[in-house]
Amino acid sequence: MAANTEGWSVPVTVVRSPGGIPAWLIQDATVPVFALAFTFLDAGAAADPAGREGLAGLAAGLLTQGAGALSATQFQDRLRDSATSLSFTAGRETVSGSLRALSANADEAARLLAMALGEPRFDAAELGRVRAGRLAMLKQEANAPRAAASRLWWEKAFPENAFGRQPLGTEAGLGAIERDDLRGFVAGRLSRARLVVAAAGALDAASLGRIVDAAFLKLPAAAPPAIVVPARPGAFPLALARLAAPQSAVAFGQPALSLDDPDWDAQLVVNRILAGGGFSSRLMDEVREKRGLSYGIGAQIVPFGERNALILGATATENARLAATLGVLREVWAGFAAEGPTAPELDDARAYLAGSFPLAFTSTPEIARSLVSLQLAARPPDWLEGRLARLAAVDLDRARAVARRLYDPAALSIAVAGDPAGL
């Protein structure tokens, strides 16, 4: 079954605001709403100062909790009254935001966004409340095997770099953060020089340019110090965090091909076959269907840094069956690296990826986020239009060659959280 390469395209308009800020746009006037997605680079948890771990995440959580002359309650009332939703999140490298509003209320939504970014209050009561919530999340995750396994994997993969930090921070770091730290973060890290913006919905190019300037033009123009990210994670031997739990959680991963590698799309196809295809993947078939070792197992390609990427996966199993599960994982990983996919597997993966492609464009927030992701990956605006042809170009010889390049049993690193026996 060949992948369909006809009949679907997504026209992307590149807009430059009157103030010079670039933004991507997909127009759709079907419903009178629009979504704006934006990301600030070099602003995530890896830039948190030592002793203030968790600063980026705490600041992001407080940006909608009062701004300018508006208290937290008043700010939320203004959002509700204008039918606007606004949120911020912090990751390892970035702070991202999402805004959704009625097109008729676009100017008011842009004003509220500008207030959140440029005039956050960081009132003591809200700081205490949001900090308490994040401390509670830390305690919860400390006893959650899946979270603990993921945290351990990142710490071991990037042992001497802030990139390996848990974005949520630490108890001591969160406890030490004061209002001046939060103000310094906003002033020093949220720069329009490192801003990526996209929009989707009932909005024309001129309106988007006006909104972008209203929201972002007053932000600092100077770029913040760059977050230094290693080119690839370090391989490490099996790592274990002992937790009293009936199951052990597993996080596993290795380097993937870079975003500018000509085999990027082929990598997505072969990873769908091995680990990303739900019940149709090799790993799911061998671990769950044939042996009943786990309810689920899978892995995805995750970009990081400027051009790099990881294969990151997870599973969980009974403590007594962990050793067997890891044995199957390693065996299947190595076997797929050596042999690659079969022709039916390749046909199914290409057909699925081609057919599911439009599902990433079913809502304005999803479309806007996808456009930001494309810009972060340095893709051209017409990248979407060539996707189906690129998938169809992945033949069996190429897929097998990419599997050999991609999967490295020696680089596959595994972290476990639980109380396994016989490991």
Explain this structure:
This protein is of the alpha+beta class and 423 residues long. The chain has two domains: 204 residues, 2-Layer Sandwich (Cytochrome Bc1 Complex, Chain A, domain 1); 180 residues, Metalloenzyme, LuxS/M16 peptidase-like (Cytochrome Bc1 Complex, Chain A, domain 1), CATH 3.30.830.10. The chain has 15 helices and eleven strands. The strands form two sheets. The chain has a six-stranded mixed β-sheet with strand order 1-2-6-3-5-4. Strands 7-11-8-10-9 form a five-stranded mixed β-sheet, sandwiched between helices. A hairpin with a 3-residue loop joins β4 and β5. α1 crosses α7, α9 packs across α15 and α11 packs across α15. It is globular.
Question: What keywords describe this structure?
Answer:
423 residues; alpha+beta; Cytochrome Bc1 Complex, Chain A, domain 1; 2 domains; 6-stranded mixed beta sheet; 5-stranded mixed beta sheet; 15 helices; globular; disordered N terminus
Instruction: Supply the CATH class of the largest domain.
Output: Alpha Beta
Which CATH architecture of the largest domain is right? 2-Layer Sandwich
For the CA atoms, what is the radius of gyration? 23 Å
Give me the CATH superfamily of the largest domain: Metalloenzyme, LuxS/M16 peptidase-like
| Oligomer description | single chain
Distance between the termini: 43 Å
Explain the layout of strands and helices.
Blueprint: E1 13-16, E2 22-27, E3 33-41, H1 55-62, H2 72-81, E4 85-90, E5 94-102, H3 106-118, H4 124-142, H5 145-157, H6 171-176, H7 179-189, E6 195-201, H8 205-216, E7 239-242, E8 247-255, H9 264-276, H10 282-289, E9 297-304, E10 308-318, H11 322-339, H12 343-356, H13 364-376, H14 387-392, H15 396-406, E11 413-418
Parallel strand pairs: 2-6, 7-11
Antiparallel strand pairs: 1-2, 3-5, 3-6, 4-5, 8-10, 8-11, 9-10
Helix pairs in contact: 1-7, 3-8, 9-12, 9-15, 10-11, 11-15
